[in-house]
Design goal:
The complex is a heterodimer of chains A (276) and B (256). Chain A is an alpha/beta fold and 276 residues long. Chain A is built from seven helices and twelve strands. Chain A is globular and about 60 Å long. Chain A starts with 10 loop residues before the first helix and ends with a helix. Chain B is an alpha/beta fold. Classes of the chains: A alpha/beta (276), B alpha/beta (256).
């Protein structure tokens, strides 16, 4: 911990980020601008999430970091080690033991509790960015809750492909008011956001935006009455633990078409195998 | 006579030192087609933008009567209210269809957009409405999933009209709807507009420099010159017996 303030960021910066977080919690799904700092890692590696984690972390917290569901890949290992070194907090890979969970692209399979905080790393906070090129215009659309254009996109998918073909970063309406990007989690995870007991915080470092979903807030995936939202999942069972309810990663095992499906959430998979 | 749908009183507007509108008053009744004619720079488009609420006049006001009969000052409306008006009660057909259509979205999606913006959430119904409107504007409904870039200029203009009329607006503004199209396509489009407008009872403010278009579509006509209305009246009356020297010049300059 020598040479660093607790959790790397200076206290003034943390205070500024906490103010943005309070505003974000007060207006669920609304993107709050904040003064994103340079972090000792490149943009795109989770600089937004790491700044939020640094601001909410206390000495008694237990931190878990997820990268695509896994605890043992580069992003997860390096961010975990970063906070172990700069904050000296206890880290874990067990979802149930963690009080703060920073995640990239997944929500844990284990149900989260009221005393936990889920921090998402967000590359692109603006759900309308591919449809409306002007940020001034998207802000106005958020202000007036004009989201018809997002449904045009869903309409196009159904007209061309027979179903909505958004498999990740599937847009949601938060609290019946703001359209929100859930960060690139699979659409499979969207229903977990709905009325989740834990506090959900979203940080986009490069885009300098923070937004939040308070506990027990309504989060609905966009759909049509006659084409309801259906989360997609590979129709296999996990080859390691046999789970049929978890999100699966497809792993290519050779160059002759061999492949296997394993749980994306490594903690969930390990827990099931230990219990069996 | 019944109550006006839209009425503008003593509108003035200047671009810096250049006056574009000087005390213009216009009244429009439900279901009526009013043409605004005049040469380039006479203030036609500025008038349209002021009526649409896009430009705030330096003096004067624009009043719109909604379906419930309430009169509202267009320029005193809050932005959400004005935008709601623009996507439901009002429509705007512009000369360049490509600028108003979403070129990367299929014809069906383009027509359905206003419905979805109003909260339609039933895919089957939206699609049925899109197919019906393609048929009404004489485009083969089989092309519902084609992108607008595969359409001809005349078809694009008809698609734009379908996209605007799908929400059954009460008032449609048209800015040179037939500009840039060849003569035979123009004739067909005019025919279509006339048919739709009279059948649906839509009121139209039509801005054009083409007296032929005005004569074919409009019941009433105002002639603008230098930001002023120099003559107004029934279309046939004005065109057959022009009183103002400028109108006489306009009428006589049309090739017979």
């Amino acid at each position: 911990m020598n040479g660093y303030n607790f959790a790397y960021l200076d206290e003034q910066t943390k205070r500024m980020i906490r103010r943005a977080l309070l505003k974000a919690v007060a207006i669920p799904g609304h993107q709050v601008p904040f003064g994103s700092r340079e972090m000792p890692m490149p943009y795109g590696w989770g600089t937004g999430g790491i700044q939020i984690t640094a601001s909410v972390l206390g000495p008694a917290d237990v931190l878990k970091v997820i990268d695509q569901g896994a605890d043992d890949t580069t992003n997860a290992v390096s961010i975990r080690r970063f906070f172990a070194r700069t904050a000296g907090v206890r880290t874990t890979t067990r979802t149930a033991e963690a009080t703060v969970i920073q995640t990239r692209h997944r929500i844990p399979e284990t149900k989260l509790r009221e005393d936990q905080i889920l921090v998402y790393q967000v590359p692109q906070p603006e759900p309308l960015w591919r449809l409306v090129p002007s940020r001034a215009e998207t802000r106005r659309m958020h202000a007036l809750a004009e989201y018809g254009v997002m449904h045009v996109r869903l309409y196009e998918d159904i007209a061309r492909l027979g179903q909505v073909a958004i498999s990740y970063d599937y847009p949601v309406m938060v609290n019946g008011r703001y359209l929100m990007s859930p960060s690139p989690i699979p659409a499979f995870d969207n229903p977990k956001m709905h009325r989740m007991a834990a506090l959900q915080l979203f940080g986009a470092g490069r885009e300098k935006r923070i937004y939040a979903v308070p506990p027990y807030t309504e989060v609905r995936s966009l759909d049509f009455d006659d084409h309801p939202f259906r989360p997609a999942r590979a129709p296999q069972a996990c080859i390691l633990c046999g789970a049929t309810d978890s999100y699966l990663d497809e792993v290519v095992t050779d160059d002759r078409g061999g492949r296997m499906f394993v749980c994306s959430d490594t903690d969930y998979c390990a827990g099931r195998r230990a219990a069996a | 006579m019944s109550a006006t749908l839209l009425s503008a009183r003593e509108l003035s507007f200047a671009f810096g030192p250049i006056p574009a509108l000087r005390g213009v008053s216009v009244d429009l009744w439900p279901g009526e087609v009013l043409a605004v004619v005049g040469e380039s720079g006479s203030g036609k488009t500025t008038l349209l933008n002021v009526l649409l609420g896009r430009l705030r006049p330096d003096a004067g006001a624009v009043w719109y009567r909604d379906e419930a009969g309430h009169l509202a000052d267009v320029h005193a409306m809050a932005e959400p209210e004005l935008r709601r008006l623009h996507r439901s009660d009002w429509g705007f057909v512009q000369q360049d269809a490509k600028a108003s259509l979403r070129m990367a979205v299929s014809a069906g999606g383009n027509i359905g957009e206003r419905l979805m913006a109003q909260g339609a959430r039933h895919y089957g119904n939206i699609r049925a409405a899109a197919a019906e409107w393609l048929e009404r504007v004489e485009i083969d409904p089989a092309r519902i999933d084609d992108l607008p870039r595969t359409f001809s200029g005349g078809m694009l203009q008809r698609l734009q009209i379908a996209r605007v009329l799908v929400t059954h607006p009460r008032l449609v503004f048209m800015d040179e709807p037939t500009g840039g199209l060849d003569v035979s396509v123009q004739a067909r489009l005019l025919d279509l507009i006339r048919k739709l407008v009279s059948r649906l009872g839509i009121a139209v403010v039509l801005v054009t420099h083409d007296l032929g278009v005005a004569r074919l579509l409009a019941e009433r006509l105002i002639v603008m010159q230098g930001g002023r209305v120099v003559e107004h009246g029934l279309t046939d009356q004005v065109l057959d017996d022009p009183q103002h020297p400028y109108t006489q010049l306009l009428v006589s300059s049309v090739l017979q």
